[in-house]
Amino acid sequence: MKAEAKVVVPGIQRCEGATSTSEEDYVATSDGTVDQADFDACIAALDLVEAHLVANDAALLAALGEDALTVLWMRLEGIRGWEMDAMYEPLPEGLSARDAAMAYLFQAQWGRVAPDADVVISSHSLHINTHSDAVDCVYPEPGASVDYWEGVVRMGNHLADALGDDYRTLSIVSNHHTWAGSWVEPPVDELPDMPKGPPIIEVLLHDLGQTTLFVDLAFPGAETAFLTPGEEYRTAYPIPILMDLETGVLQGVPADWFDALIYLDEDQPWTQL
């Protein structure tokens, strides 16, 4: 590995954020773009490290122990996912790499600290859903759409493949959102110039007059499902995160996205646990 180290060390130093002294320093100094030469050097270094870990797995396991070796793999996959996302977002190569790393890190950490426990993941809904290909972003202009998620393999896809029926997804939706502690105006039911299309879930739930609702998208035991199975609906939920509320909504079959919804008429700022 001595010869490879001459490539690995300078290559890792060219990975996005590698020379930052803190998260605050990174935010202050990074312009969000990645130079192609830096990217190539970083990925080449990561590939060499991965090849070394694979080729010397038994020896490293004996020398370091299972937990330390797992942490090495977690760091490697985390850096690779970050570098790919920094280079390619919003293209599928970047988003898929980030979500693949998220799934890997979650499962590795779960196995390290609580392998027999049931675990709740708090994440943006588009990361946990298992059918990102069933989500379309539709704009007001006729025929206009964005394929921001086309071809993206989400964390939820990986976890559903690994865990099967043990993986369940809940999405929090709200008529009146907050983001970064500030109200996003106006509420969804008051949005101006909404494009014509299928009903908007937040508006339908808001019209029920309840502050909090749990919506099982299978609607077990219901004579008539509140949301018609197989029918497309729209949701404005992710839009405050991704784009201006007046420019587009997400559209698709809700049961293809999630198992259930938690509806909050007014979504208060989140507190970090």
Structural write-up:
With 273 residues, the chain is of the alpha+beta class. The protein has 2 domains: 2-113, no CATH class; 128-266, no CATH class. Helices cover 44% and strands 13% of the residues. It has helices at residues 2-13, 23-29, 36-55, 57-64, 66-88, 92-113, 125-128, 155-163, 201-206, 239-242, 254-257, and strands spanning 136-138, 145-146, 170-176, 178-179, 182-183, 212-216, 233-235, 249-252, 260-266. The strands form 3 sheets. The protein has a 4-stranded antiparallel sheet with strand order 2-1-8-7. Strands 3-9-6 form a 3-stranded mixed sheet. It has a two-stranded antiparallel ribbon with strand order 4-5. Helix 3 (36-55) runs antiparallel to helix 5 (66-88) and helix 4 packs across helix 5. The radius of gyration is 22 Å and the shape is elongated. The two termini are 41 Å apart.
Quote the beta fraction.
Answer: 5-15%
Give the helix/strand class.
Answer: alpha+beta
Please state the CA-atom Rg, rounded to the nearest Å.
Answer: 22 Å
- The helix/strand order is HHHHHHHEEHEEEHEEHEHE
Strand line-up in the sheet with most strands: 2-1-8-7
N- to C-terminal distance: 41 Å
Shape label: elongated
How many domains in all?
2
Percent helix, as a range, is: 40-55%
- H/I helix tally: 11
Oligomeric state of shown chains: single chain
Counting DSSP E segments of at least 2 residues, the number of strands comes to: 9
Could you give a short account of the major beta sheet? Answer: 4 strands, antiparallel
Low-confidence stretches: 139-145, 238-248
What is the residue-mean pLDDT, rounded to a whole number? 82
